[in-house]
Amino acid sequence: MTTPESPTPEQHQGTGAHLGVDSAHRAASQSALASRFIALFAILGTTVSAIAVFVYGAVFVGIAIWDTITGGKPSEEGLKHLTLQLVEATDAFLLGTVLYIVSIGFFQLFIDSDVAVPGWMRITDLDQLKTKLVGVIVVLLGVTFLGKASNWRDGDDILYLGGAIALVVGSLAFFGFRAHEKH
Predict the structure, then answer these.
(1) Within a domain: residue 25?
(2) Which of 111, 145, 113 is nearest to 41 (CA)?
(3) How many domains, the chain?
(4) What angle, 0 to 180 degrees and rounded to 10, lies between the N-to-C axes of helices 157-182 and 126-150?
(5) Which residues, in sequence order, are CB contacts of 64 under 8 Å at separation 6+?
(6) Inside any domain, residue 48
(7) Is position 29 within any domain?
(8) Residue range of the domain that includes 116
(9) CA separation (Å) from 118 to 93, 107, 114, 115?
(10) Is 13 contained in some domain?
């Protein structure tokens, strides 16, 4: 309800007060939109970390193969040693993959949702990123256990490690299912 003393909404639009509110709203919106670029630190950090782990893993594989080839006569023990080293290198590559997926996911969430990625890497919300991460972490834990189990000699320690990994995988699965129930 307007009184003769107060301007109508149509009259108010031409006043400086309305333009000031509109400008402040636009400035706040632009600031909020621009602040998403703070995620570039996370994107850069996870990308550099992924590259470092991939390069380290590749060098590790090269040295392991070279040492095996130049180590003398091939043997069953040498093959087991090489296999264990390659499983450990796979562990590193999986960690690099996790870091890479996180980096690409952050990029899609904060910078450009239309970046060209394969369908399985398409991230539209944080829950999708977490789900992809959980899947790779479960595989990473499995490979870690395989590496430890192949190097295991005696004792119950492998049972404790297996139980601990099973608890972690079970917890991740539980929370993954709970997240899907909410959607």
Answers:
(1) no
(2) 111
(3) 1
(4) 170
(5) 82, 85, 86, 89
(6) yes
(7) no
(8) 39-182
(9) 19, 14, 11, 10
(10) no
